[in-house]
Amino acid sequence: TVFSDLLLSLVCVLLGISLIMMLDGCRSSSEPWVLLGSAGIPIWDWTSVCVVMSFTVLQVALYYLPVGQVTEGKMGCDGKRLKYKLNGLHAFLLTVLLMLVLWFAGVLRAGAVMDSIFSLVTAAMAISLIFSLMLFLCPIRTPSSAHVTYDNTGMIPKPLLEFVLGQSMDPRLGIIDVKHFVMVRVGFIGWAMMDVNYLLTAVEMKNSSLSLLLVIIFQLIYILDFLIDEASVLTTKEFTDEPIGFIMILGEFIWIPFFSSLPVYFLLQRPNHIHFLSAVPICLLFVTGFLIYYLSNEQKDGFRRNPRDPAYARLNTIRSPAGRSLLVSGWFGWVRHPNYSGDILMMFAWCLPCGFTSVLPYLPVLQCFNLLRQRANEIEESCLKKHRDAWREYCRRVPYKLLPYVY
Fold this sequence. Notes:
The chain is mostly helical. Helices cover 60% and strands 7% of the residues. It comes from Cyprinus carpio.
């Protein structure tokens, strides 16, 4: 509902403060926060603003790289399919290369970036607010982008709804799709750069450990897989059905880069050494989750493209009144959302090396489970309206959503 979305936006702002508190909770020292100055940990610093701005401008420039494929996505308002430049992997590799060059040249000190983590979060919050205000005050009108309108509720001003939730589905600046840019280039590449910076910090501190390496490797594998298959984001519900506003922009600027990398930050502040034998089951759990995630998505996408492919001949299906067939065997005979199950297992695997002295490094996987649970419920409501009795029969045959015999 609109009210819940506005409440979510307020929560997002509070989560920015909560994120700083979580990061502070990971620290072993108890230095006080200060707005400016050197008497404690500064939560505002103009250098951090320059860092976040430079990263954002760099990603804008790399979007124009003459490499990568151009693919078609959803249908625009003008009846033509929207086109997207998929060169996120190239942008990521060049960003890492630039970061390593600056580090080896002595221009960049990774430890200083980590020490400025609080001011980086507040700088990202400020820039996301400015970015959102620009989209709101100077809306981008293109023939292909749907304009979202809201009813006057009496309680909530319409302009506030347009600012918080967004007033355009697919705004574009030149060839740059704004939603695609903040999701992939700011969110995921920003997350990867925080991980790389933490790794370089560990090298500077001579504080690398097996647990830290495992978490960083797991997360970078996950991010690389996403960037290699960048087109997969174009079919997600968030990308196709939701406008872009302050909620989405703030989440991509602060939540994905800083909250997702929280387990790595925790291990830098509170090292946890694990035995090689303990790492084996953790690696197996991650590999299991990755295979479930990858193979179930492959099965789903392949069946959607060509249900008559011989590879799917042995799979059981239910015919839907909508004219499509629902898989009731294979990965989708195990649980109704196996790709989400794989996601959860992978995230749980990269939290385990942190040990059990604090709940803080496990907050990302808990938030992920809750988010995917909500998304699964939304998808199932949509499928029930579309497939009716066929969906009810599928739920009867496959009773579990995410975890067999659990949920």
